[in-house]
Each structure stands twice: as structure tokens, then as C-alpha cells.
Amino acid sequence: MLTSDEWDILNELILILGPFEEATRYLGGEKYITYSIMSPIIEQIKNLLLTPNSRSPTPTSPTSTSPITSFNTPEILQEIENADNVFVLIEEIEMQENDTVKKNNNNKIDLNTPFENKEILDEVKKNLYNAMCYYWNFTSDDSLLSTILDPRVKSMGKKAEEEEVLRKYYEEYQENYLPTPIESRAASPTPSETSIILNSIYKPKLFSIFEQNQPKASNEVEEYLKEDKIPFNQCPFNWWLNKKNKYPVLAKMARIFLAIPATSTSSERLFSDAGNLMTSKRSRIDSELFKRMMFLKRNATKVASIHK
């Protein structure tokens, strides 16, 4: 029978692990941008793990970003090299475990004795925080660029470093940037229009008053960073679509880096669908037919009816 303290611990664990479940569900999506918010979400989870819980007597500083117990990789490798024979150690551990089991069998276990739960929540949070610092101790340029180019986020608090990285890649993309030619919007020009177009003296300018294109920014990086952030429920791709004339190079970079998925969940879903379709009893299915069936399976929700 669980005691009231043990029920309280379970409720606290739900609050601790809840952000992990929330992040996993969101970052596993495939119909919206995920890569740009992965790093901010990880940092936010770290901060949440550093905040004291209701049962903790001593608060932990939420401003710390270093592991509570650092992982010393050289010392770990040295210990591995100097380790004893692993088979001998396993045999000794098994003998100790057998002795422990024999001793426990001689002792009666009182199920009504409450579980020793002192400071267990702090230990759980400390281990989770250390694991996150160990596995996510470095932010790649791709991830940082994706975050900067997302007009919903734009910064992780290190503005000088972020602007330097953005300018570096901006200069690289600017060298290889080829502007898309402006296509004529006329469906079928009239003879008078054709004569004007073919005239080498007169340059068409009459209909320019109807164009709403924004002038190109003189300094794309500087002007973009001064832009206000947009609400989180808006689509960054739509924002860049409206700003592509003002920031042509940054818009091209945004299309590249914002399209990166944060996880492999979407591709794993595709593999699962393929495995359900290509079974052992259907291994001789034509490859072209298989491709078409997979296409229909993945895009069926976008079509109202296949009979139209």
C-alpha cells in the first residue's frame, strides 16, 4: 500500500518528466518547423530541472548551465585501461549477489514500511540534468542558424556570437546566390504590349505602381536582427515568403535550414508504413506500384476524394 508521501513523489515525478514528454511529442512532428526550437527547448528543460521542487529544502540556482557533477572523460578512459579482468569481476559480483539474496530470504519484508524517499526527487533531477549536459553540451552551427532564422525565436541570448555566425554563413551564401528572374505576370500579352516589349528604347514601367515588393535591404543581417519577432503560432515560411525580396539571401538560407527535421521520427514512420505494405507475402510487388501506393498512403489526407 502506497503511503501519502509516496503518492506525492509520483505526482512530483509527473511534473519533472512532463516537459520531456511534451518536447518529444512536438519535436516528433513532420508538418511544422521543429529544428529551430530544439536548442531553446533543451535549454528550457535544463532550467526547469534546476528549479527547486516543493519537497526540496535547498533551492538550486537556475542560472547555472554546467553539470552538477561533471563527466571527466580522460579519467574514465584511464579507469577502463586499468580495469581488472571483467570475467573475474562478474563472477565476484554474482557471488556477492547470491549472498545478499540468501540474507534477504532470511529476513521478512514488511510491506507496510514506507519507502525511503528522502531527497530522491533531487537525485532524479540531478541525474537528468547531468545527462542532458553530457549529451547536449554543444550547439552545432546548423542548429544555431535554424534558431536565428526562425522569426519566432531569433536568439538564444548570445547575440554577439549569433550575429557572427549568421554573417559568416551569409557571406558564403551571398557568393553563390543567383537571383530568380522576375517572370512576366501577363497571361497573354496583347499586340500593343508585345510591341512595347520588343521596343529596345522604351522600358516597361507603367504597371510598376501595382507592385508591392519591398526594397532590398542594404544590410540584410543587421536589418533582419532588428525585426520584431512574430507570434509562435504563425508560420515562419509565410513570413520569409513575404520578406524574400527584402532579404533574398537570408530567405534562401531560411528555406534550407528551417526545413531540417529535429528528429528521425517522420522517416521512421515512413519505414513502418513501408514494412506494413511490403510483407513476406507481397515481396514480388512491382517497384513502381509500390512507390505509387506509398505516395497515396502518405498523401491521402491531402486529397478529399480519389474518385474526383
Explained architecture:
The chain is about 55% helix and about 0% strand. Helix 10 (about 235-245) runs antiparallel to helix 11. It has 13 helices and no strands. Residues about 55-75 and about 180-190 have low confidence and may be disordered.
Task: Provide the descriptors you would attach to this structure in a database record.
308 residues; mainly alpha
Condensed summary:
With 308 residues, this protein is mainly alpha-helical. Helices cover 54% and strands 0% of the residues.
Topology:
Elements: H1 4-27, H2 38-50, H3 73-81, H4 86-106, H5 120-135, H6 141-148, H7 159-175, H8 191-198, H9 220-226, H10 236-243, H11 248-257, H12 265-277, H13 287-299
**Mean pLDDT over the full residue set:** 77
Model regions low in confidence, pLDDT < 50 over at least 5 residues: 57-73, 182-188
- Provide the succession of SSEs: HHHHHHHHHHHHH
What's the total count of β strands?
A: 0
The dominant shape is: extended
Separate helix tally: 13
Mind telling me the C-alpha Rg? Answer: 30 Å
Strand-pairing-aware structural class: mainly alpha
In which range does the helix fraction lie? Answer: 40-55%
Cα distance, first to last residue? 61 Å
| Strand residue content | under 5%
- Biggest β-sheet description: none
